[in-house]
Specification:
The structure is a homodimer. In chain A, α4 links the parallel β2 and β3. The model of chain A has no long low-confidence stretch (mean pLDDT about 90). The first copy, chain A, has about 250 residues and is an alpha/beta fold. Chain A starts with 9 loop residues before the first helix and ends in a 6-residue tail after the last strand. The first copy, chain A, has 9 helices and 11 strands. Chain A has a 7-stranded mixed sheet, with helices on both faces. In chain A, strands 6-7 form a two-stranded antiparallel sheet. Chain A has one domain: 3-Layer(aba) Sandwich (Rossmann fold). β7 of chain A pairs antiparallel with β7 of chain B, so a sheet runs across the interface.
Chain lengths: ~250, ~250
């Protein structure tokens, strides 16, 4: 199974870092606040971060009281920055693709919380990740993740948007929502592979993996935010992100 | 709160009955098989059917071993046919809008299973229905329902579809997925009111109402079915239906 490491591509890396460094972006305005709103009180928690990138979240977990954080990422280039900018004695950064998570489980590691920010749509075998996350969580432990919204990962018909004569987005050209699997897209470099999964596949994979889905967020802009950044009105047509909070069921519970 | 009774409108009723009588339609090919695939073994079960219409499902529940079935519907006109065509000593048909479900709960009724086929998108207060369904179910009891898919209940930009020069559907013109609430549409008569809810609202309302979401189906055509009815390929762009199976959590369970 392909393990995709676009983040070690130089062109991609610089482009991506450019967005992340911008003062305002969709991650900072929508995805990160929604992700943290789903987290439990972090005091005393052992946390695993899947696709930790530059380690900003890992450091924030420690600041909010976590006692141990493991961050894994496929990109050594990103972990180098994480170790430089977001190191802490209680954080361990491991260069590892998410598909190899089973190795951590074999070591008998257990976590109270597994978090993943915008990484799972790069993974082909979501069910495999869910199985490993379940093995790595204590019973009652939580899995909180964000991913690109299914309306964002699916095919589009021709151009993504149909615009009016003034260039304003009128509607999303939605095609093949029901056809799952690999999509190639261009994001700084060609052939960034994302995997489209329908809503039902995401929910059912979690349910079959022994999780109870507690809450889902599809972030939308507030009136206040729209006044400042009117372009984000297009999120009403197509949310960019989907966030999920799921709890590992106790054995014998249904 | 409005309780909508379009089914007692003569024009609507005749138009609707015409579709239901057709040998092949999307309900028979996709919705009904998906709904029944989510049901548990019905032997010995007490079942409540919300929006039972002509009572076809109520009779089938009895045939499959249910011991008691209550069918409620807002339309007396539909229940008249239910009583004529699908009566059974173990079936009780009650003329009652879904919004008044609380009255059944006050009577101390308890069910093992609550089913609803394509009725909930007509109900404004979904959270209220979920609360009443929870009160009417025993712990561990199941709530299985179908509704129009959220990609189907939401606004569209202008026409619903963009077609190629041969009239083939290229993509859905998707707009305002994130804006919930009342939508007016024309289905035999003007001003049929449907209520759009996002995916996350459906899931979160069930979760907050004490349910664990077990499984979701967004029915798609099989290759075999497409050979016979190629027009249903448009379901890959936009599923017509969403089906949900949820279990009432035990008290004290999370």
């Amino acid at each position: 199974m392909a393990k995709q490491n676009i983040y070690d591509n130089d062109v991609f890396f610089e482009g991506y870092k450019g967005i992340r460094d911008r003062e305002v972006n969709a991650n900072k305005l929508f995805e990160i606040p929604a992700l943290f709103s789903l987290l439990p009180d972090l005091k005393g928690k052992r946390i695993l971060d899947l696709g930790c990138g530059f380690g900003e979240h890992c450091r924030r977990f420690i600041e909010e009281g976590a006692v141990r954080v493991t961050g894994i990422d496929i990109s050594e280039k990103m972990l180098k920055i994480a170790r430089e900018e977001n190191s802490d004695p209680a954080i361990e950064y491991i260069n590892m693709p998410m598909e190899d998570l089973g190795k951590l489980a074999e070591n008998g590691e257990k976590y109270d919380l597994v978090v993943s920010s915008l990484a799972l749509h790069y993974v082909e075998d979501f069910a495999g990740v869910v199985r490993n996350v379940s093995n790595l969580l204590r019973e009652g432990g939580e899995f909180v993740f964000s991913q690109e919204h299914p309306l964002n990962t699916c095919h589009v018909g021709g151009n993504r948007w149909t615009r009016d004569e003034n260039g304003k987005k009128m509607f999303l050209n939605l095609a093949y929502y029901g056809v799952e699997g690999e999509k190639e897209s261009t994001w700084f470099v060609d052939n960034v592979k994302k995997y489209h999964r329908t809503f039902s596949t995401v929910i059912n994979t979690l349910s079959e993996g022994g999780f109870s889905v507690e809450r889902i967020i599809e972030p939308m802009p507030t009136a206040e935010l729209l006044e400042k950044y009117p372009d984000y009105a297009d999120l009403f047509h197509k949310p960019d992100f989907m966030l999920v909070k799921a709890t590992k069921k106790h054995k014998g519970s249904y």
